[in-house]
Amino acid sequence: MTPRLDMIGLIVSDMAASLAFYRRLGIDVPAEADSQPHVEAVLPGGQRIGWDTEEVIRSFDPSWTRPTSDGRVGLAFLCDSPAEVDSLYAELTEAGNTGHLKPWDAFWGQRYAVVLDPDGSGVSLFAPAEAATPPGPAA
Asked: pTM for this one?
């Protein structure tokens, strides 16, 4: 048997704030989950994402401490268009989340931005750059 990645787990200091952030990115999590210590959601394709409060982690690993440096795990969300990258970045930062990299046209052919989630993890927003519209027929 070969192990397979089944769930991406996030350790959060404020469950409600974290879930509100990820709901804005389209992850379907019911409102009543805000007060739970462990939450899971199934993503398209069957993969799961889970959130655990710091208290849950300490319940089975009492030596665990909150990291003091930038996150080492990043999530990336594919958007439908460069305009959606811009509008989603604006929505998330206007809601009080920290923008890390404002939307820009990356040299690798994407519109790209990074917002920090409530626990400081970088969340990339990206879309393929729109191809230039070919000139129309000469008049």
From this structure: 0.81
Please report, for residues 31, 61, 69, the alpha-carbon distance to residue 88 in angstroms, rounded to integers and kept in the order given: 21, 36, 26
139 pLDDT band, cuts 50/70/90, is: very low
* DSSP H stretches of helix in the chain: 15-24, 54-60, 82-94
* Separation in Å, CA 11 to CA 31, 71, 86, 115: 19, 11, 27, 17
What is d(CA 26, CA 10) in angstroms, rounded to the nearest whole number?
Answer: 17
**Cα(120)–Cα(97) distance, integer angstroms:** 9
Instruction: Give tens-digit pLDDT for 36-92.
Output: 999 999 998 889 999 999 999 999 999 998 888 766 678 899 999 999 999 999 999
Structure tokens given for 9 = 């787990």
Phi, psi of 20 (to 5 degrees): -60, -40
